[in-house]
Design a protein that fits this description.
With about 325 residues, the chain is α/β, with parallel strands linked by helices. Helix content is about 30%, strand content about 25%. It is built from nine helices and eleven strands.
Length: about 325
């Protein structure tokens, strides 16, 4: 007669309840403790919607400290994924308060390719509709700027793996909205990878991205957005690119060759760093403290980037 419910939100630490469907009684069994001290009353959490190019409403989850002014002055940290039908769940993340307590607005962009709005949300962000994923992320950026939640030149974007593909695409398309980009084990050499069926994961990935070996339409579409193939002479925002030498899902040389091409083509001198972890795999280094060190490095980059004068102009 009892259902066990696990609940959390970006501002609510995890709680476990037992709910009796006969008596309608809800009993709290366990709650996550934050040893350093925490009060959810100090924060504001919102669900808003950005209008995409085709009129679709893209959800975004937004967290900020209650004394943070939404007048365009606050820096913004946006995360996106949008692939494989994997939803970007707004569960409690202890680490993000390192940014939020410093005045950042933290945003989850629930772009197409995930399953936040059902299976159609996934279908409309894969194969021949993959570009919806990238357009949705840019729509979220513009929504934040239009509504003065953030401002152009004070936004940091983050994505890992297939989310790193989003970062690569928007880096090529960005016209000054972003201050910095962090890509973690980024899938950025999409066309070459999907053409190489000797790689163990390539055939199993064709249903997600398309098969450019056999289908000319798939080839042309992937080539049109593949980050490595679309690097061009332009000013790029600050960038941190993270790779892992033992990554069997996204090979380390994708990030290396992408960074080399970016360095050769970009027309400005913003920070562009590549870090290859010589012991980690796709999910990062093992061990709690190694993981925390990785998060700290990303957040340090974000803080330094938005506080730097060069973020105000990609042309410098």
């Amino acid at each position: 007669d009892v259902i066990r419910i696990v609940y959390s939100s970006l501002k609510t630490p995890q709680r476990i309840y037992d709910y009796n469907i006969k008596t309608h009684k809800l009993v709290l069994r366990k709650k996550q403790d934050i040893p350093s001290g925490y009060s959810s009353k100090d924060y504001r959490l919102h669900r808003w919607f950005a209008t995409a190019q085709d009129g679709e409403q893209v959800p975004l989850t937004v967290l900020f400290k209650k004394n943070t002014k939404l007048d365009g002055s606050a820096p913004v940290f946006i995360m996106g994924y949008g692939a494989y039908g994997r939803s970007l769940h707004p569960y409690f993340r202890e680490n993000i308060f390192s940014l939020v307590n410093r005045g950042f607005v933290f945003v989850l962009a629930h772009v197409r390719g995930g399953m936040e709005k059902g299976y159609d949300w996934y279908k409309n962000g894969r194969l021949d509709k993959k570009t919806n994923t990238f357009n949705d992320f840019i729509a979220v950026e513009k929504f934040l700027i239009k509504n003065r939640i953030g401002s152009a030149g004070k936004i940091i974007a983050y994505g890992a793996s297939a989310g790193g593909m989003i970062m690569g695409v928007i880096a090529n398309q960005d016209d000054g909205l972003l201050c910095g980009i962090v890509t973690d084990v980024p899938f950025v050499d999409v066309l070459n990878t999907m053409l190489d069926d000797t790689l163990p994961l390539t055939p199993s990935e064709w249903p997600e991205w398309g098969n450019p070996v056999k289908n000319p339409e798939d080839f042309n579409l992937i080539r049109s957005y593949s980050p490595y193939d679309n690097v061009r002479k332009k000013a790029y925002p600050h960038m941190m690119v993270l790779a892992s030498v033992s990554d069997s899902r996204v090979t380390y040389w994708e990030a290396a060759k992408w960074v080399a091409k970016l360095r050769a083509m970009r027309t400005n001198h913003n920070v562009l760093m590549l870090r290859t972890d010589m012991s980690a795999g796709h999910s990062g280094a093992t061990g709690r403290f190694s993981g925390l060190a990785g998060v700290a490095m990303i957040y340090a980059f974000a803080i330094k980037a938005v506080n730097g004068k060069r973020c105000l102009s990609h042309s410098q």
